[in-house]
């Protein structure tokens, strides 16, 4: 039983977009324990799509297609698959209804070319798309070959995969030996330093332990192969506990845990509230905090103090401090934290002021210099200096600043227990 | 003359890494005007690598390989290519010297397994790697087939491509015509509706016009083939102008233009300022606006009014309106916009209040219901109701809300000229 991934779209051949769908599907197949040995990318061209179907159908028992399900003439996936297997397309009334409803919800009329998206082979099942107009299909055109199609829009594809494809694959008895993993997340320690600390675990066979690094975060993936999730978790747990103990405060959480969710959980447990005052991040920290559903239980809001005027009038920063020390200084960060804590009457507050670049640097203050401050329920304010370097670029500096701020609050919450 | 890309590495099949090499090479081939119709990913497995070489060598005249050039036993690329074409490998003394020197520079001794990286077919040319130990090769194993190999590390691969592969390909007379494109961006119109309006342009041969869709945005790619960029631009311009005229206000900009940059440019030209009051987006709109370097020239800041208390105290929203109409209502949105405009003394302001979900819905107010309001320099306030649907999820609802808000401001700025 092997699967194969075929991504269709001339934009992939032109390099206009990154093929993140292939990575997502590859991870998902690995998690299900369904082997796949080949991925192919092909453009919106009938004879070439036929060519790759011919090759893949000789090698694999499951073919997963992404892309080419849209309403325009260059969207060929469904018709190419059907014509390869000499099967006519029929218009499914329930798809038409679904598309019409989606247009109606947005106050628009369905256009004629959307009818094309309702055409699938008679014996194919609809793979419903909750948000977009392009449904996929699950179809067995010949014995021992199952085809699944997905649109190219990643958010739609992922939802359809989780909601329908996984249950379907499992119902077929595929993915019986599962690979189950826990992604453990760390902050404030480098990949190599963490790797040295847990070096003795890298030789384990089941579960395996492997390091990953992404921007501002180091991860360890602890993965076990077992008959079911419960057995896998039993294998994973003692190893995960050992790693937690080794990493101490640098361990943040696992899987879906984020800095914002971990901090939010701690605030909720303590019944404490938080506000923010943001300059260079411009709302990014507030946005990160409010990614968490239910964050209104502890996050009251904040001031985006992008201009000095707002820092003075809304946060009570003294004009002479701005003149003497500059907006990017520890003392201004502290005043911002105090100001928003008082104004919003919260237990905690975080402030951020820095130079995200590319402009704005001075002789003594380079791009990437950031001050942040945290005010605690005892009205004490701690400030921190970050030097993120000039070469990372504006986006990374802003993102990392919000991450650092949340990590500092996380550590203060731990220490302030 | 067509090329094909083959990426080798089990880590790609496990989804551990994103295949950014394929995107880079795709863009480069497009820029050189060398067509490529297929990309394949295969793991570190001899017979399966042979299988993909067999298929690609029947379809293409240039095959570009990435990955599998390292010193470990699972690095099979060079030996697999050579054995497919029945050619022995020989040890190239100059590669050994180069690797030894690189180790010496770092004060280390070359390890025995690095000798493997010096093995290439006798008639192959070395494709030098300035930074890493893995050189590639340029080899013509049979008439009308040229093979180029690169390591999988993106930085090394890119440097080798620019330094050696491009000059080589041009010296062969390939890549003399370039493909140059403009990505035109639209809002407020669906992919199918836009496609119908510009339907007559889809049959053009040079430039070509093709539609793309991503979340909340529709794009048209206008691409021309020509001797140089200037000639390509001459071909693109009249078509782009025609599309602009057809799309009217729905046309936002092209290439690197974003809603935030387009709005920012308009505000800057008019010498006007902006503030925001955000509830459900929690700072996301401010963050989007401040992605633009220099946004401090027109964006003053804002209030993240996540709690009702903040709406009342900081923005002057009347408590009885919150009780009577609820926080998610047009009237509260209008008061928020007025409140922040006054408080921050800006020409324009945007406010957002909505239900991002998954909780928070009531009988009359579903998840995805959002009100936004825009106050203009004449202190007039216009409010808008969005119904984004319950199924998109919190993240998409918040992101789309910020996009809609910026798009509404963009349209008001156009109308208010």
Structural write-up:
2 copies of one chain form a homodimer. The first copy, chain A, is an alpha/beta fold and 417 residues long. Chain A folds into 3 domains: 3-171, Molybdenum Cofactor Biosythetic Enzyme, Chain A (3-Layer(aba) Sandwich); 178-254, Alpha-Beta Plaits, CATH 3.30.70.2860; 259-415, Alpha-Beta Complex (Maf protein), CATH 3.90.950.20. Chain A has 14 helices and 17 strands. Chain A has helices at residues 10-13, 20-32, 46-59, 77-84, 93-105, 154-171, 191-197, 229-247, 259-270, 284-289, 308-315, 319-325, 330-344, 394-415, and strands spanning 3-8, 36-42, 62-66, 89-91, 119-121, 125-127, 136-142, 145-150, 178-186, 208-214, 217-226, 251-254, 274-278, 299-305, 348-354, 369-375, 381-387. The first copy, chain A, has a 6-stranded mixed beta sheet with strand order 2-1-3-8-7-6, with helices on both faces. A 5-stranded mixed beta sheet of chain A has the order 14-13-15-16-17, with helices on both faces. In chain A, strand 16 and strand 17 (381-387) form a beta hairpin. In chain A, helix 9 (259-270) runs parallel beside helix 14 (394-415). The two termini of chain A are 52 Å apart. The mean pLDDT of chain A is 93. The interface between A and B is large, with 89 and 94 residues.
């Amino acid at each position: 039983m092997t699967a194969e991934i075929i991504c269709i779209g001339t934009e992939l051949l032109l390099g206009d977009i990154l093929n993140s769908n292939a990575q997502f599907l590859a991870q998902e197949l690995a998690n299900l324990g369904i082997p796949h040995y080949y991925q192919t990318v092909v453009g919106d061209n009938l004879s070439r799509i036929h060519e790759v179907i011919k090759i893949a159908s000789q090698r694999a028992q499951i073919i997963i297609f992404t892309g080419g399900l849209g309403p325009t003439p260059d969207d060929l996936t469904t018709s190419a698959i059907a014509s390869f297997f000499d099967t006519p397309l029929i218009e499914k009334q329930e798809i038409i209804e679904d598309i019409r409803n989606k247009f109606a919800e947005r106050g628009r009329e369905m256009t004629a070319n959307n009818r094309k998206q309702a055409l699938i082979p008679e014996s194919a099942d609809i793979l419903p798309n909750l948000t977009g107009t392009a449904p996929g299909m699950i179809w067995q055109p010949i014995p021992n070959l199952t085809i699944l199609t997905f649109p190219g829009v990643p958010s739609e594809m992922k939802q359809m995969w989780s909601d329908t494809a996984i249950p379907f694959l499992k119902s077929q008895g595929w993915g019986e030996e599962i690979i189950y993993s826990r992604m453990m997340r760390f902050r404030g320690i480098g990949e190599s330093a963490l790797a040295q600390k847990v070096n003795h675990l890298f030789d384990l066979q089941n579960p395996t332990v492997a390091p990953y690094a992404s921007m501002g975060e180091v991860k360890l993936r602890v993965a076990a192969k077992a008959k079911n999730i419960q057995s896998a978790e039993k294998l994973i747990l003692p190893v995960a506990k050992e790693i937690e103990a080794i990493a101490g405060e640098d361990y943040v959480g696992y899987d879906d845990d984020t800095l914002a969710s971990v901090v939010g959980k701690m605030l909720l447990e303590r019944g404490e509230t938080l506000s923010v005052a943001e300059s260079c991040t411009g709302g990014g920290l507030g946005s990160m905090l409010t990614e968490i559903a239910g964050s209104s239980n502890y996050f009251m809001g904040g001031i985006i103090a992008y201009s000095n005027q707002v820092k003075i009038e809304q946060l009570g920063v003294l004009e002479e401090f701005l003149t003497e020390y500059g907006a990017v200084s520890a003392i201004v960060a502290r005043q911002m934290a105090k100001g928003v804590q008082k104004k919003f009457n919260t237990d905690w507050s975080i402030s951020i002021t820095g130079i995200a670049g590319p402009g704005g640097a001075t002789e003594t203050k380079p791009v990437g210099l950031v001050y942040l401050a945290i005010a605690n329920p005892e009205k004490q304010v701690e400030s921190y200096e970050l030097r993120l370097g000039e070469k990372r670029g504006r986006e990374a500096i802003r993102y990392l600043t919000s991450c650092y701020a949340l990590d500092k609050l996380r550590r203060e919450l731990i220490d302030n227990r």
